[in-house]
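Question: what's this shape?

___
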Amino acid sequence: MIINGKEVTFRASVRNLRELAKLCKNGDINNANLLFEGATADTLDNSAKFVSILSGGVLDPEELLDMEVPEFMAIQNAAVSAFKGDQKGEIHVEPKKEKATEAEADAEAKA
């Protein structure tokens, strides 16, 4: 996505989530929804910071606050979608394989 002439990819990377958690109540990312509640000025500031963080710092919060509301809302929605999408991924980990005995290795090789 190109915003103000800058290539922007919204990502919920570990680094971005750590920065986002610093904004959240008690430093808990599970409280991210509270960033969008409360006084209007605080909510707008938090929204701009949220988008900036998920852009990896490519977008400056002050730059975002100068945008028209419809444009900002579309960008914020893209950032929220990235945040939600990256949060619900599943990870499947294979158990560590034990070293096979020579007999087992021979049997597997013949199979």
About this structure: The longest strand covers residues 2-3.
